[in-house]
Amino acid sequence: MERSNHDSEMEFPQDFRCPISMEIMKDPVIISTGVTYERKNIQKWFFSYKKTTCPATMQSVENFDITPNHTLKRLIFAWHNSHSPSSSSPSCSPSFRRDEMVALLKTLNSSPFKMKLDFMLLGGLEVLFQLIIQILADSSDFMVFRACEEALGVLQHLPILQESDGKVIELLLKPEFMKSMVIILQRGSKEARVYTMSILRKLANLDFNWNVVLNDQGVGMFKSILELASDEISTKVSSSALQVLIKILDSSKECRSKAIEAGAMSNLIELLPDSNSDSDRSKCEKILLAIKLLCECTNGKVAFIEHALGIGAVSSKLFGVSEIASNIGIHIFLLICSFHDPTNKVLEDMLIYGVVKKLVILMHMSGPSPTKNKMVDMFKKHTNLWSRYPCFPSELKGFIGSHRV
């Protein structure tokens, strides 16, 4: 039968319809199996037809209590209002509409994933985008700010795949969207910053040009990510920030240069001494990898050398963290020593902080490899200077002489 009311003209999400009548629910209730029905329909099923099963799942039902689903009812009401022809009329004040939208998004954020997906497919993505970029026009308005945060909360639940989510990616990469996310990273609530990092982490897993984003938001965006990487309260936030940072740094030299300009090297080196426990092993490995990526740039090597703690901090991670951390540390020192002619001060610090001794031990422990050959070459090149110091390992000369590349 063809529905004559306005509901027939609207593409409601399937979850808004009663599984029995397939009509939009006006008084949704939940039964013991967790499924929601229109109250009058499920009451008739149980008490008029004397059924003892759940209509949707056919599970046996022993508890016939029904509980109002206020969350879904409010969501249906808000959705209906926002999609009805009269919704575009100026009958409600902007602040009232923002209040309602925040309530809708909060409800949607806690709803089942399929409902979020239906929301997106029925034009919700554009609505979210407009709510998020409103913060650029008036970030001092509390409700605008809250609506932006709630919209990001919904958006972060969506899977973002290169092959199927072109529209999502297109919107996410717009400069105004990135600017809005930077504002949230800098001034948003802890929860909203987690949402934003989740979205950035998904974007970082895609193969796209980060330079487009960073040309406009580079330094400010890196500063915000680095601040979150230093978060000592939430390991989830700091880990996500480091993951995003590594992905961006690995994408191009231009990205690494922007990060160095934002003070990334100094921030990362100063994070290392606090990453010594077993629970921080993964964090330490990520920090070392980010430092290594920065050292692949000339200005990154300079920033590392100029930092008073650089050599000592990385040296302390060559043993005692993990094999991965040790290997990354070795590559950092190989990069530093390949930087034209490292100054005597750099070479002296490598000896004083135990780098040379640790590398000798690692060479004894490891089998033949390209990395080991590079270490042998490094020792051959700098042994004359190091051998002047009393702390120089006496067995090194014989070891170097016995190894040929």
From TrEMBL:
<comment type="function">
    <text>Functions as an E3 ubiquitin ligase.</text>
</comment>
<dbReference type="InterPro" id="IPR016024">
    <property type="entry name" value="ARM-type_fold"/>
</dbReference>
<dbReference type="InterPro" id="IPR058678">
    <property type="entry name" value="ARM_PUB"/>
</dbReference>
<dbReference type="GO" id="GO:0016567">
    <property type="term" value="P:protein ubiquitination"/>
</dbReference>
<dbReference type="InterPro" id="IPR013083">
    <property type="entry name" value="Znf_RING/FYVE/PHD"/>
</dbReference>
<dbReference type="InterPro" id="IPR045210">
    <property type="entry name" value="RING-Ubox_PUB"/>
</dbReference>
<feature type="domain" description="U-box">
    <location>
        <begin position="11"/>
        <end position="86"/>
    </location>
</feature>
<comment type="pathway">
    <text>Protein modification; protein ubiquitination.</text>
</comment>
<dbReference type="GO" id="GO:0061630">
    <property type="term" value="F:ubiquitin protein ligase activity"/>
</dbReference>
<dbReference type="Pfam" id="PF25598">
    <property type="entry name" value="ARM_PUB"/>
</dbReference>
<dbReference type="InterPro" id="IPR003613">
    <property type="entry name" value="Ubox_domain"/>
</dbReference>
<dbReference type="Pfam" id="PF04564">
    <property type="entry name" value="U-box"/>
</dbReference>
<keyword id="KW-0808">Transferase</keyword>
<keyword id="KW-0833">Ubl conjugation pathway</keyword>
<dbReference type="InterPro" id="IPR045185">
    <property type="entry name" value="PUB22/23/24-like"/>
</dbReference>
<dbReference type="InterPro" id="IPR011989">
    <property type="entry name" value="ARM-like"/>
</dbReference>
<protein>
    <recommendedName>
        <fullName>U-box domain-containing protein</fullName>
        <ecNumber>2.3.2.27</ecNumber>
    </recommendedName>
</protein>
